[in-house]
UniProtKB/TrEMBL annotation:
This is Cytochrome c oxidase accessory protein CcoG. SUPFAM superfamilies: 4Fe-4S ferredoxins. Residues 240-269 form the 4Fe-4S ferredoxin-type domain. The keyword Electron transport applies. It comes from Azospirillum argentinense. The chain crosses the membrane at residues 12-31, 65-86, 139-157, 169-190, 323-343. It comes from the Bacteria. InterPro entries: 4Fe4S_Fe-S-bd (IPR017896), 4Fe4S_Fe_S_CS (IPR017900), Cyt_c_oxidase_cbb3_FixG (IPR014116), Electron_Trans/Redox (IPR051684), FixG_C (IPR032879), Ig-like_fold (IPR013783). PANTHER family: FERREDOXIN-TYPE PROTEIN NAPH (PTHR30176:SF3). Pfam families: Fer4_18, Fer4_5, FixG_C. The keyword NAD does not apply.
Length: 463
């Protein structure tokens, strides 16, 4: 494709979106956030060695991966809502493929020229001038792709530290591997694949129609006003055109030439249309130059188009059943995630009962079960906890390697800052105190001195 440059409202909106999104992408890893001593100060960081995800004031452990699931659900529902309201607005403005393709295309225009110049250059025989332009374009593309891959790796490492290592040629092989991988994919997808990704690779166009209805805003063509098409002659008045049955469309092809996927919107809604609105800008420019009303191509709903064709007043209805349902789902899921983050515990406990053997009969006849207790200390300070039992009368609790036993009482356990403390715990019960092979019970862990309590259900097995 050789998309032509265009100026207008939607083109300016796309530039604004592109600058905003690229700015966020490249700048975010450099934002600092104070989390206290012995904690990373990068605002957004996926700490793979430390098994943490940091997002400003939010810190997630691997055990809290369900928050990522909630974020994906929010993203999906938000995309459904945006599609129900304004069609493929995500594809046209915010999709990474669109953003980087726009950037690469801007570079191509700056070096090789606009649509006509690029077509002539590609059809011309190879020469030093052509070779120089092609080399400059691909060098610029590779530089952008390299910056893109490097910025992505910064999200998984401390950005200033990694940047210094790269300047000193001390970056690890894994870092270089991922930078190379993301550089190659960016160069390939944004520089060469472009519209092929939107038309053939992306699954979203295949089921977007299920998200839309007759009130969704999409790029439309007023065929009732534009047809029949016909080229405009200088000596021909509009009255003469109308007498011949010709409409406002002068069949200039401007709407097709500016489309990044080569769609002719005059043929109706199509899978390849990404809803960017550049054809609206192109057509409005032509209509202004020939003295005809604008918005022959426009963002509109199917019902509004029918109303205009019949001379009625169109009305946009953003509030309708599907948008209400999507909004409610966003509110519920978002509220649940917000409540979960506010109430997120600073300690968690995981109990694993030994399966081999299921139980041990001691020399005095008591029955003993063994458990592995993992205490997750999600604070930056060492903590002391009291581990006790409930629901198992007569039980004696002890920690392997600890001091003493606790009969229906509690034993102390320690946990280092920001870590998982693992303790092997033994529970002994007199045989005559057991009434069934499996007795429900629970471990209770209480943080000292504030009394924060976490309970974990388990069972005690016996013959």
């Amino acid at each position: 494709m050789y998309p032509k440059s265009v100026a207008g409202t939607f083109r300016r909106l796309k530039w604004l979106t592109l600058i905003l999104l690229l700015g966020l992408y490249y700048v975010t890893p450099w934002i600092r956030w104070d989390r206290g001593p012995n904690a990373p100060d990068q605002a957004v960081l996926v700490d793979m060695p430390g098994r943490r995800l940091y997002f400003f004031f939010i810190e997630l452990w691997p055990q809290q991966v369900y928050y990522l699931t909630g974020a994906l659900i929010l993203g999906a529902i938000g995309l459904f809502l945006a599609t129900a309201l304004a069609g493929r607005v995500w594809c046209g403005y915010a999709c990474p493929q669109t953003v980087w393709s726009d950037l690469f295309l801007w570079v191509e225009r700056r070096i090789e020229g606009d649509r006509g110049d690029r077509i002539r250059l590609d059809n011309a025989p190879w020469s030093p001038a052509k070779l120089g332009k092609k080399a400059a374009k691909h060098a610029a593309w590779l530089l952008i792709a390299l910056l893109t891959g490097g910025a992505w790796v910064f999200y998984f490492n401390d950005a200033p530290t990694l940047a210094l290592e790269m300047l000193r040629f001390e970056a690890s092989s894994s870092v270089l591997l991922f930078i190379g991988l993301f550089t190659a994919t960016t160069y390939l997808l944004a520089g060469h694949a472009r519209e092929q990704v939107c038309i053939y690779m992306c699954p979203w166009p295949r089921f977007q129609a299920a998200m839309q209805d007759e009130e969704s805003l999409t790029v439309t063509y007023e065929d009732w006003r534009g047809e029949a098409r016909g080229h405009l002659k200088r000596s021909q008045s509009w009255e003469e055109r109308k007498a011949k049955g010709l409409g406002d469309c002068i069949d200039c092809g401007a709407c097709v030439h500016v489309c990044p996927t080569g769609v002719d919107i005059r043929n109706g809604p199509q899978l390849a249309c990404i809803g960017c609105g550049l054809c609206v800008d192109a057509c409005n420019d032509v209509m202004a130059r020939i003295g005809r009303p604008g918005d022959l191509v426009r963002f509109d709903s199917l019902n509004a188009q029918i109303a205009r064709a019949n001379g009625a007043k169109p009305a946009f209805k953003p509030v309708r059943p599907r948008t209400i349902i999507y909004t409610l789902l966003l509110t519920v899921v978002g509220g649940m995630m917000a409540a979960g983050l506010v109430l997120k515990p600073k300690v968690d406990v995981n109990i694993l009962r030994d399966r081999a053997p299921l139980f041990v009969t001691l020399s005095n006849g008591d029955i003993q079960n063994a458990y592995t207790v993992k205490v997750l200390n999600m604070t930056r300070a060492a903590q002391t906890y009291r581990l006790s039992l409930t629901g198992l009368p007569g039980a004696v609790l002890s920690v392997a390697g600890g001091e003493g036993e606790a009969a229906d009482g509690a034993v102390p356990v320690q946990a280092d800052p920001d870590s998982v403390a693992t303790h092997r715990v033994l529970v002994r019960v007199p045989k005559e105190a057991l009434r069934q092979p499996s007795t429900p019970m629970a471990f209770v862990i209480t943080r000292q001195p504030d009394g924060l309590t976490v309970q974990h259900e388990s069972v005690f097995l016996a013959p």
